[in-house]
Design brief:
Strand order of the largest sheet: 2-1-3-4-5
Strand content: 15-25%
CATH topology of the largest domain: Rossmann fold
CATH class of the largest domain: Alpha Beta
CATH architecture of the largest domain: 3-Layer(aba) Sandwich
Distance between the termini: 57 Å
Helix content: 25-40%
Structural class: alpha/beta
Radius of gyration: 22 Å
Shape: elongated
Number of helices: 11
């Protein structure tokens, strides 16, 4: 008999196919009544596969008394209450390194598109403005700028490698100084003061909530750029709106 699991939401098609082949899988996203669904499957469910931001807290865990493992599709586990899982001796896993290179490619594209305004230039060209109004105005040189990486983990290091290849100077702030050839800044404010482009790559969760605040944005200045590939919660968005 296959072990029974709950899948919180519809995820990547290939992963869903594998889970449904290897386990007796119950899809929570299809349940009209979540409480009734959990009660129905509680006696047999031993694992939960999580996709997306749905909170998995102590109340959810207690509804599944035989729960042994919560497996998260993705690196960030901020939607899972790790303290609650630890108290109940429930294993929590994630999928680090799977998308490092893809995310780093996307981050570099966002940096270049923001600084060089490639999307705007393409729209200008496709709109026929080149013939009637002349070339698109010159932008700025990304390679002449300093990239400040807030959170130099695996993905941050992959981005640094790409940005350095474009000629950008790299600085970083991390919870701990790393053995890397880039200058270290002791806090986000100092990092913002010393860079032109602030790239946010931190985990989400309470520890980083509104980490990029008014002090950081003031230090970055009106000519600075913010590129966030982390959770939206890392930036104080109401404050950010005042700077736009």
């Amino acid at each position: 008999m296959k072990p029974e699991i709950i899948i919180t939401a519809r995820g990547h098609a290939g992963t869903m196919t594998t889970l449904q082949a290897e386990f007796t899988a119950h899809l929570l996203a299809d349940a009209p009544d979540r409480a009734a669904f959990l009660k129905q499957h509680a006696p047999a469910v031993r694992g939960v596969a999580t996709f997306g931001p749905m909170p998995v807290d102590g109340k959810f865990m207690d509804a599944l008394p035989k729960l042994e493992i919560i497996s998260n599709f993705g690196v960030g586990v901020d939607a899972i209450n790790l303290d609650d899982a630890r108290k109940r001796r429930i294993i929590v896993t994630n999928t680090p390194d799977v998308l490092n290179e893809a995310v780093a490619d996307t981050a570099l594209a966002l940096i270049l598109n923001t600084v060089r305004k490639f999307p705007q230039a393409e729209q200008y060209l496709r709109g026929g403005n080149w013939a009637s109004r002349g070339p698109y105005p010159l932008t700025t040189d990304a390679g002449a700028k300093t990239l400040g990486i807030l959170g130099l983990g695996r993905i941050g290091e992959a981005i640094a490698k790409r940005a350095a290849a474009c000629g950008m100077k790299i600085r970083y702030h991390n919870r701990n100084r790393k053995d890397v050839p880039h200058p270290y800044d002791p806090d986000p404010v100092t990092l913002a003061k010393n860079c032109d482009v602030l790239l946010v790559v931190t985990p989400g969760g309470p520890e980083t909530n509104k980490l990029v605040n008014a002090k950081v944005l003031d230090a970055l200045g009106p000519q600075g750029y913010v590129v966030n590939i982390a959770r939206g919660s890392v930036i104080d968005e109401p404050v950010l709106l005042r700077y736009l």
